[in-house]
Design goal:
241 residues; alpha/beta
């Protein structure tokens, strides 16, 4: 009896083994196919999101003609995830739909906070012609790069305070040196910019070009020392002036 049961179990195993292997193989194929499909969806979402950023950063000259340079620049910043404050208004605007309307000459941007904003180099042409931007902040901006900082020059007549921090590898020494054009700059804070490879020389060159600017920097391993040194130099010059 025991022998018969053993033979039956052996035959059953022989029958089930191909079936089990086939099921496992089919399950693996299904799992692999699902993963491929999921990856395609993720890629499509990323591509669509990237295209959306490009649309938000595109300069529409016809639209600027209708709403004015200041209003168009405010729409650009808020659509990309930043905020603006306009003259004679204490409130910050984060949503371009809430910017309101009014005479073109009355809408003048005074402060820009682009923290976590998806601003790209193409969009910085919106800054051309802005009259009175005094402060700007770029923090955790994934697309910020040297070309963006090189396009801040149109604000050289009004920009007094600037912060650039936590913006990844795309901001390098070249971009920081481009800030030399901002002759009215009084305060500059730089932090966590791993793309800046020679911070000591770069900051010294920048400080020489902007002697009246109070510069603080936390770059590389010697960030604290740079902050103290550059702040001390700038403060000494300020006191003389």
């Amino acid at each position: 009896m025991a022998a018969l049961m053993k033979n039956a179990a052996t035959r059953m195993t022989t029958i089930l083994r191909p079936c089990t292997c086939a099921m496992v193989s089919q399950r693996n194929k299904t799992f692999k196919r699902d993963n491929i499909e999921k990856q395609k969806v993720r890629t499509k979402i990323w591509v669509d999101y990237d295209m959306l950023h490009k649309v938000f950063n595109k300069v529409d000259t016809a639209h600027i003609g209708r709403v004015g340079q200041e209003r168009a620049a405010a729409e650009w910043i808020t659509r990309c995830g930043g905020a603006v404050r306009i003259q004679d208004v204490e409130e910050w605007f984060y949503n371009y739909n809430n910017l309101g309307t009014g005479p073109l000459g009355k809408f003048v941007i005074e402060e820009i906070d682009a923290s976590w904003a998806d601003v790209q180099a193409e969009g910085f042409d919106h800054l051309d012609g802005l009259k009175a931007v005094r402060t700007m902040k770029f923090s955790s901006c994934p697309y910020l790069q040297d070309a963006c900082l090189e396009r801040l020059a149109p604000l050289s007549h009004s920009l007094h305070s600037l912060e650039i921090s936590h913006c990844g590898q795309l901001v390098t020494d070249r971009g920081i040196l481009a800030l030399q054009e901002l002759k009215q700059l009084q305060r500059l804070h730089l932090a966590d910019l791993p793309g800046v490879k020679d911070p000591e020389v770069t900051l010294q060159t920048l400080q020489s070009a902007l002697p009246s600017c109070f510069i603080t920097a936390e770059l590389g391993e010697t960030g604290a020392d740079q902050t103290a040194q550059m702040a001390s130099q700038s403060h000494g010059i300020d006191s003389i002036l």
